[in-house]
Amino acid sequence: MGEEGFSLKFRLHCRHRGTHADSRATIVMFAYHHGRRMRLGSTGLRIQVASWDPMLRRVSAGVPGARGLNQRLAKIEERVLELYYRFSDQPDCLDQVKAACAAGELEGLGMRGQLTVEKAFSQYVEGLQKRGAKASTVARFRLVLRNLQDCWEKSGHHGRLLVSRVTPAFKDTFETHLRYVLGLHPNTVSLRMKALKTVLHMACRYHNCENVAFEGHRFHREPSERIYLDEHDLSRMLGVRAESPSEALTLDLFTFSCLTGIRFGDAISLRPDNLREAQGRLFVKVRQHKTRVPVEILLVSHAEAIVRRYLARQGETIFPPITNQGVNRILKTLALRAGVHRNVTFHQSRHTFATRALSNGVPIASVSRMLGHTNIYTTQVYARITDTRITEDMLLLEQRWGMGPQAPGAQPHEK
Q: Which among 54, 231, 266, 379 is least buried, having the fewest CB atoms inside 10 angstroms?
């Protein structure tokens, strides 16, 4: 294309030198005008390097789908020429053309322009459901989409939210929206930003497009404190009186997890065939939903009594159905009644189990196995040894070394 010294050329942009022929690269645009060259940006189209004809600057004719891709390139070329005619009488013509391209003048011409964020999320969620992902995982991605759409509207944007419009600037706006408008914890913000990056990456991979919103972005996760109940608060919680069947169920589930470390989702889905009896003792065997690690745990007498009491109801699951949100709501009521002045949640029972086990001398490898962790370093962060245990260990060392506290007025031994 050459109009009054203006031309547009398509090239492949490879991020690394020596890119293999089977690798994928983005088709980018370069404009030339009176000896000046300017990169206008990406077309949003990605192809294999071997599919590109560098002489014709088009997709090779024998490549599947080449005709459609080349037609899109031709439409992009026509639109850029129209932009040139619009700004040709201005001294900063190329800058104006580039600004118009960045503002969305080419939307709808490449695959990236046609793909909405809502469709990208919908396709990703559909894939999650086919792979049997947990309902909570699916719900998290749908929540991220709602957050994104809400941020788009409140930022004063108009029109559909396209993948092409998720720019690095809008990505930063969305992160600010999550942190300061919604008031989310930094780690929650990081998880939702990762979910957005995952969806964009998969959408661009399957739709031959490109999005650089997260290029060079680093996710920061703050170390979170593992809150657990000390012996005083735990005895109060386990001794509180339940005033309804739902409170009794909640208290039994909470106690059971404090004694086994089993997550709520695994506990509420326990079935009679998850139990095994050997030598007069009861074992529970479960494949954990989160890590898919099979775990078999011996039930201590109190936990065994809880299970045997609910087995009498002869239901499909050992415990009656109840939601995690419902349990946490009831736990707050029980905590107030017990005089425990903290925000008690069900997951704290798992922290409590791990901390008590380590504090009572159970090897960390055994605790890691009971919790179903795939990495022992997770257990070191997850379960903390209490200050009381450390003090007891130091006193024990003091006794073994024969260096107990001296009586008042006693003189130190001379060497």
A: 54
